[in-house]
Amino acid sequence: MKTPATITLIISLTFLLMNYTKSSPTQHEPLTITRIWHGWTSKDNADKFQKTLTEEAIPNIESNKPKGCLGIQVLRRETGEEVEFTTIMFFNSLSAIKEFAGEDYDAAHIDPKIKHLLLRYDTRVAHHETLFTKVW
After folding, report:
1. Domains of the chain (ranges plus CATH)?
2. pTM here?
3. Fewest CB atoms within 10 Å of the CB: 1, 17, 65, 77?
């Protein structure tokens, strides 16, 4: 069963993406670029990592976000003895990503407050063109 917070996040992202992407699969020019990063922590550190991420790191991004940064989504899943976190950020242009991350925009930027909690992590992020979004 989905929690109210999960449902609220899904609804919020749906409205966000509806405003910035087209629903046509034939669209050739993306209206958003999705930035994806993965990090793994121990089960013992997972709750602390999540709390620091959601209560400190993400609010810091939000308060300093560049024009063109549309939002962020955080995913969590247990994988054996580790817990994987995935962050998905939405931008309206490559220039907005460069404003956020710098010229080496594929480099991962990890808040020092959470870096020590990670067992391993992507040092490079992936950027994808968001061609369309459809949510049921």
Report:
1. 33-130 (3.30.70.100)
2. 0.75
3. 1
